[in-house]
Amino acid sequence: MNVLLLSMPDSFEHMPTVGIRMPNGALTSLAGNVDPHHKIAVADLILVQRRVRETVEKLVRKLNPDMVGLSVMTFQRKTAKKIIDLVRSLRPGIQVVVGGYDPSLAVDAYTDNSSGVVDFIVRGEGEITFRELLRAHEAGCDYEHITGLSYRRGDHFYHNPDRPVNGLEGEELRLPHRDARVLRGYTLLGRRVDVIETSRGCTFDCSFCSIIEMRGRNFHTYTFDRVLADIRDACAHGARAIFIVDDNITLNVQRFEALCRAIIDAGLNKIDYTVQAMTSAIANHGDTLAPLMRQAGFRYVFLGIENILENDLEFLRASSKNAERQGGRRTGNATLKAIDYLHRNRMYVVGGLIVGNPDDTSESVQMNLEFARRYVDWPYIQHPTPYPRTPMTKDFRDRGLIISEQLEEYDGTTAVVRSEYLSAEDIEFMRWRAERWMKTRHMPAALFHSPLFVLRHAGKMFAHTFRGSSLKSFLGLEDEHTVFERYRAIRRAERAYL
Predict the structure, then answer these.
(1) Sign of torsion, CA 193 195 198 204?
(2) Could you tell me the pLDDT band of residue 402, with boundaries at 50, 70 and 90?
(3) 66 pLDDT exceeds 70?
């Protein structure tokens, strides 16, 4: 069969498009785990945000796919349905499969004929389910034996039992098939970038997280041989920077330290690695872990700070993963100690914070913004977003704080909920006004690391960060709220990909 796998063009807008464009690792993993006689093409539409229609039309005509699969997050749902309509207009008989967080957690949104017809929904982890789907489809068999699959028969959808999460043991899951990519341009500050994973899952229960709703609270790991092979394959395909996409690699600190040693021993530490980490793990093990990370090549660490106020951490159910401990006892917040360990070992902190929680006031939001300004190298500040089936969603809905049901706005940087004391617009304005200036502070470090790239693209990066601004606004001759509204209008227009 000819199969075309698409990731959506909708993106989070924390960094300029010229600065970072990551591949969708799930699609190449799907491609690597189907039977080899199938012809699989993977297209990350994030690389062609202003040319989505013409790119899809070109790919469908050139590849003549029998099946198209779409990986979809909640804020991408509207775009996904438009792409489905476009593909069906080009090939009326084509089979359409959707998977990813949104179809897995909001199945009903894809089973109604009025919302864009799909034939199959792959729920949860997709590699084995998708492999079995292709086998059954090719053999003309029924689909009722395929766990993790929902399928259409006539006007009715059938939902098979969930597939148990994969333990990642042995060789059941093969390496990603990176040669299946048909678009190019994945970069991180001018360096070709790829993604790998060393583990899946998390055992915490943060209220904002879709991961535990999709796969439960568990943690499974790949062998180091498999991880190193994945890194080598990414490098063979040109990667000079790698983002490790694990849900929570620091759940097992001893394993993470051993992985750093394995990377060093394998001579794979000349690559720039980026990873997500818990503050508690870095703070409580930083003496040994942080130097090993730096020696292994880690450069950026996305630190899940979440919030610096205890009340907000309790709402986010993130207190325990941000706790400093001594002698097994909790002694305070781990954030500053974690940041200090990373900075002392010449790593940069991408600070993940969430502002606009139900009881937030202007003062509490400002405290978090000021903390980010003082201590993090690159801000990744988001607003709480009511994604399907997360505990946070129920809390916000019960309190009547959700002010927007337009899912295309659920991108993390558009405030779609208010607090008891602030409007959503006020919360978003405060973040926007502070964050754009924070981002400029990392420019010298980026210049030192990638001078040619920064010199060539500094104008584009600056223009993206300050979208909506004008000479009058920089001279203080224009009200900031006017600039903010112009920025929001630009952001709305950017979401129209088709």
Answers:
(1) positive
(2) very high
(3) yes
- Cβ partners under 8 Å of residue 317, min gap 6: 204, 205, 206, 207, 391
**Is residue 400 located within the same domain as residue 290?**
yes
Report whether 3 contacts 65 (CB < 8 A): yes
Q: Is the pLDDT of residue 173 over 90?
A: yes
**Burial category of 114 from C-beta neighbours within 10 Å (exposed 0-12, middle 13-18, buried 19 and up):** exposed
Q: Are residues 372 and 257 in the same domain?
A: yes
Q: What tokens appear for 498 in the block?
A: 């088709």
Reading the block at residue 95, the tokens are 């089979």
Measured CA to CA, the distance from residue 419 to residue 116 in angstroms comes to: 34
- Give the pLDDT of residue 328: 63
Please name the residues in contact with 469: beta carbons below 8 A apart, sequence gap of 6 or more: 483, 487
Q: What is the pLDDT of residue 94?
A: 96
Instruction: Indicate whether 483 and 450 sit together in one domain.
Output: no
pLDDT of 114 over the 60 cut = no
Total tally of structural domains belonging to the chain: 3
* Length, in residues, of the chain: 498
Same domain for 482 and 446 = no
In Å, how far are 51, 282, 306, 388, 436 from 317, measured between CA atoms? Answer: 40, 19, 10, 17, 28
Which residue in this structure is represented by tokens 């952001």? 491
Please give the model's pTM, rounded to 2 decimal places.
Answer: 0.95
**Sheet order of strands, 120-122 included:** 39-44, 2-7, 67-71, 95-99, 120-122, 149-153, 156-159
Q: How far apart are CA 269 and CA 280, in angstroms?
A: 25
Considering Cα of 48, then 53, then 57, then 63, what sign does the dihedral take?
positive
Residue 214 has pLDDT above 90, yes or no: no
- pLDDT level of residue 171 (50, 70, 90 thresholds): confident
- Alpha-carbon span 102 to 411, nearest angstrom: 13
- Give the residue numbers spanning the domain of 103: 2-159
Residues 154 and 13 in one domain: yes
Do both 213 and 140 map to the same domain?
no
Report the alpha-carbon distance of residue 308 to residue 333 in Å, rounded.
8
pLDDT digits (tens, 9 = 90+) for 443-472: 899 999 899 999 999 999 999 999 999 999
Tell me the percentage of the chain whose pLDDT exceeds 90.
Answer: 87
